[in-house]
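seq/struct pair 1
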Amino acid sequence: MRRRLVVAVVALVLATVTAFAVPLGVAMTRLLESRALDGLQGTVESLALVLDVTARTCGELQLRVAQVAPDAAEVTVVGTDLLVVATTATRTPLRLGVEEVAEATTGRVGRDVGDGRLAVATLLTTTVCGRPLVLHASTSDAELRRSFVVAWSSILAVAAVVAVVAAGVGAQLARRLARPLEALTGAATRLGDGDFSVRAPRSGLEEADAIAAALDGTAERLGRAIERSASFTADASHQLRTPLTALRLHLESLELAGADPDGVAAALAEADRLEATIADLTALTRLDAAEVAVDLGALVADRVASWQLAARESGREVRTQLAPVPAVLVRPAAIAQAAEVLVDNALRHGRGTVTVRVAPARSDDAEGIVRLSVEDEGEARGLERPGGRGLALARTLVAGEGGQLTVTSGADGTTAAIVLPANRG
């Protein structure tokens, strides 16, 4: 978390600095360009004033251009038809700008930057050559480009310094923010693992401390609730087991007194089932109930004797078909209780033989999904059916183990199936 937050803050700082540096550089470029043109325009306007005042003939104008033109600029006097009247160039004036000359003929000063030059043109008032004249001056933009380099270098250097300082400060702030969040994450993880004594540390940040206080309150309330629940479960288990033990003793006394052995055996079997149910449900209430690798075939084999005994009381039969399957990672008590509910429903609401199968969910999937199904020859026992005993609980138990419980019905009877992913560990 800390590294991602630091990277995000530094990236934001760099983006912000760039967003300011680039427009500043563009503005500085335009300012330098405007200043360079202003300087050349001042030179051209001064030269135009000299020519307008002192040149009395066309020849004198040509002489004056050669005398007063600055060395750094190439000066040309042209007619509005672009025919050269006078120039300081040793050959035809280079890149005489048509745009700035055309602008000058309207009475405005024509200015242009491009093609490696600065150019300015202005209209002369003298008519000594018999037609309107335009004074055009151009110079290399090498100095301007050097000033661009200096300006951009300065801006980028300042931006780099600001970015480094801001990134350092931002990284420090990000680390300061990340530390309390990491501490809160650790406290929340311990709370999720069942440590209700955990207390989140305080950092001095108002928002983080508010979350820490809320987390502490949650841990305290959950701890009290779990403690009360555990106490109630222990008491309830004890209260159920005490009369169950007494019942077992009475049944054994009846057996010794000559009571019907089959009836006593059936009653003892039901007592065993009830005791196993109490043990399973008590185990499910414990937060530390661990998931273990369970062989569904072995789980069914451990329970089938009690199911068969219950089935014989109603003239029914429970059969098993147990194919080799990989283990599933579940809480054994949850799946045992879900299977108990399905078999009990089949015996109470179904007809005919009850078949408990354990097999891969598909014939082409020997390792991925495991299926425990309970089949009978009766009608559907869906959750909506009045009298459908315990199916909602069974569905919840199976879903809690990462599986799914389905109930389907057809002409041949009803099938309730628990489908679970195999343990790939």
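seq/struct pair 2
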Amino acid sequence: MRPLLALIGLGNAWRRDDGVGLWVAEQIQARNLQGLKVAPLSIPDPVALARAWEGARIVWIVDAVRAGRPPGTVLRLRWDRLPDPQERWCSTHGIPIQEAIPLARALGDPPASITVYGIVGRDFGHGEGFTPEVEAGAHRLLRRLERLIPHVLRCLDHSA
């Protein structure tokens, strides 16, 4: 079955709060929902992004971000409304997600909708585990996604 919805988790599990996107993706992946493609990625390489969302109509990307908000805050933005990488919001990866998404879209067959869920991190140093604020934010987002995913999949299935 062609995936209707793709959830992509970005991060580095060895850089503390930066691993939160991977963790959320792994939790959702364990649910094994039909119609949902889940892809944990270490680097938002445009080719890897394009492969991860191939065929999906809707894409949600989860990543740790640096932003002018308290740690653990969950932010939700359309990909084309992400702030410039030089501004307060930025991904912690080598290539900013604001640059990776347009490049991946240019590779062909872009999804109709791309939403980025950013969890504001506090500690991006070496090591495992999240700060308490980021862990709480990750659980809030996970609960939200667990409610949203079945609803979105039903809607997409009926519209197909």
